[in-house]
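quick one, two chains, predict together pls
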Amino acid sequence: MAKITLEDVDYVAGLAHLTLNPETREAMARDLGSILEYIDQLERLDTSGVEPMMHVLDVTNVYREDTVGESLSQEDAFKNAPKTDGEYFLVPKILDGE
Amino acid sequence: MSAELFRLSAHETTARIRSGDTNAREVTESYLAHIESVEPKVDAYLDVWREPARARAEAIDAAIAAGQNPGPLAGVPVAIKDNLCTREGRTTCASKMLENFESPYDATVVEKLDAAGAVLLGKLNLDEFAMGSTNENSAVKVTRNPWDSDRVPGGSSGGAAACLAANEAAFTLGSDTGGSIRLPASFCGCLGMKPTYGRVSRYGLVAFASSLDQIGPFTKDAEDLALILAAIAGKDPRDATSADLPVPDYSSTMRDGVSGSRIGLPKEYFTDALDGEVGKQVDAALQALKGEGAELVEISLPHTEYAIAVYYIICTAEASSNLARFDGVRYGYRHPDAASVEDLYRLSKSEGFGLEVQRRILLGTYVLSSGYYDAYYLKAQKARGLLRRDFDEAFTRCDVIATPTSPTTAYKFGEKMDDPLQMYLGDIFTTSANLAGIPGLSMPCGLASNGMPVGLQLLGKPFDEAALIRTAYAYEKSGAPTLGPAPLG
């Protein structure tokens, strides 16, 4: 199963919002191919009738009272913002026109 | 004598401070001076908080002088891995992505260290976002092994292990997703514990793989493990996966001995692939425990061979999801030239993340992508259930499982960097504990003939850290040879 083409790498990089330079692209195809080839040994393992283990703890949903507690101040929340007007995080314009 | 205060364990340090033999300020000065002298050769710290540490130590001394109890770690200098959020300084994950990030809150473990009276000395190097086994993936610098500066400290908590081995803090905290505490503890000759999943709150730990990550201590001895685990463990309403269970008094059960205790040796771990030197030291440690009254029994963990494959599917899947949040919008690196939002995501991620992080995001995205999800991710979760079942069955026949922590001693720089798969295979003995959620520790058990430390790994039943600490303590008291200080310590 595990032959990773450059097209596969481009497709996955697109999903992950990564842009790879030509060298990295080749290296990733090679590395992902060999890692996936190793991972493919799982095909030998019979897992029929085995439930997937979503979590190691026997916890179900955890509820709490819906009460107002302390939270970050607006100032703290914006402290690390690359660009803000003090009320919103600013990003490049999404729609054309005014 | 005060010149050597930095050599004391955490429990010795706080006992001396309480007795008035020394004070927190003197202890802190001793560490700051030692850091000054060895740090140029070790490079464990990303940031040393000299003035905040001094002020904190003086506050502890003032509290003691006023007759107050400043806590079980009063005046003990600690340093922490830089993926733990602190309001002081920066929290960078050794990544360009977070090089200027100032956390608006403290991680729960940081609040707990404060409440226990510890003195924070600063933040420690790691593989970027805790992804790696050598610290060579740090975007900032290379940390060196205090036993041999041509060798890696291990990873991803390499800074935390090297810092402790070089006596640059009395104890340190790291995080362990697939061995990131136990492997560097083994490589650097110190104790390191990954508690049971849920034992310690993960609030404020920058997430790598949320179902596997745990925070844990590196210490100089077993008594310190008992002291520090008790200080950082417990239910936290801010981490819904933290367990609502009482935290035992590890310091008292520690002395109960191992007489009658059954130590399981999984036959799948003791194979020809094991380095002969490592096997020899591990065997000597097991004989020492036998001499203390423990019974050695052979057990089987039949799905061991699949652990690495399962681990690298699950951890990369979770990483690709967790790291999607770093998009350059709310915090973290933003590329200056983005003309559109799509551009902003792409350019910021591609420039902000290093190669190993990108490799894991790609692999994780691949195994979760349409058409491959069942074959990889779902299959891995089923196999994970089988791995857990192996341990449940093994623990009906033994109380603690003992294995080598790593098949080899510390690698030389560059040795594994060209082949990511070879690097991943070094985690062969450690990933199972994370997948099963059980506690594990690594403790030093002698030196190989290359002069490098060997680690013995102990694995326990869920929430039975007490058995691991008791076994480590019994080994220390057995009269087995100790390592002594590292050459750069």
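Chain B touches chain A through 72 residues (CB under 8 Å).
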